[in-house]
Amino acid sequence: KVASQLIRGESVTAEWYDSVSIYFSDICGFTAMSAESTPMEVVDLLNDLYTTFDSIIENFDVYKVETIGDAYMVVSGLPDRNGILHAREIARMSLSLLKATLTFRIRHRPKDRLKIRIGIHTGSVCAGVVGLKMPRYCLFGDTVNTASRMESNGFPLKIHVSPQCKDVLDTFGTFELELRGNVEMKGKGSVKTYWLHGEKTLSDSPGVSLNIL
C-alpha cells in the first residue's frame, strides 16, 4: 500500500497507531564473522538470509520496515490496522523465522551455525515517509526503542518478549511463554520479560506445545 502510493507520486500522510507489534533481529557474532570474510561473502550471506526471511514473512500480516546490515525490522498493525492480531502475527512470524535459521547454511562457512537474536514488543507508534530523493517509510516513538532493547538484551536462538506483548499474546491462549525475570535495560530500568517457545495448535493434546527448540 505504502509502496504503491509512493510509486504513483502520492504523498503518504504521517499517522498515529495506538497498538502495533514490532520485531527486531540481528545475527550474533556478525561483526567478527564479517572481519573474517570477504565483502562479497558477507553480501551473499545477507542476501541468502534476507531472501529466506522475505519469503517467509509473506505468509503473515506484517510489513518489513527495513534492513540495516544484519538487523531486520518488521511490524504488524500498520499501515492497515488489525485489532490485536498484530501480536499474534509477529509471534508466529518470529517462530517461523527462528525455525528457518536452524536449517540455514552459510555458503562460505557451511560448518558454522547461524544464530540470530530476536526481540518483540507491542505499543504505539507514529509512522510516516521521510525524505524526498530516497523516501523511506519510518516508525517513530518509544515503542521502536523498546523493541530494539528487547532484541539487544536477548539471547541467541531465543525470542525475547516484552510484558506488553506478552499480555496481548495471553489473550489468544495458545502461546507458550516462559518468565525470564527482571532485566536491566538502558533507559528503561528493570523490566520483567519473557521467552516465547512455541504455539499450541488445535491438534495438540492439552498441555502440549509445538516448541521449535
Automatic annotation (TrEMBL):
Protein name: guanylate cyclase
PROSITE patterns: GUANYLATE_CYCLASE_1, GUANYLATE_CYCLASE_2
Subcellular location: Membrane
BP GO terms, sorted: intracellular signal transduction; receptor guanylyl cyclase signaling pathway
Domain Guanylate cyclase: 21-151
Membrane topology reported for the UniProt record: Single-pass type I membrane protein
Any one GO CC term of the record: plasma membrane
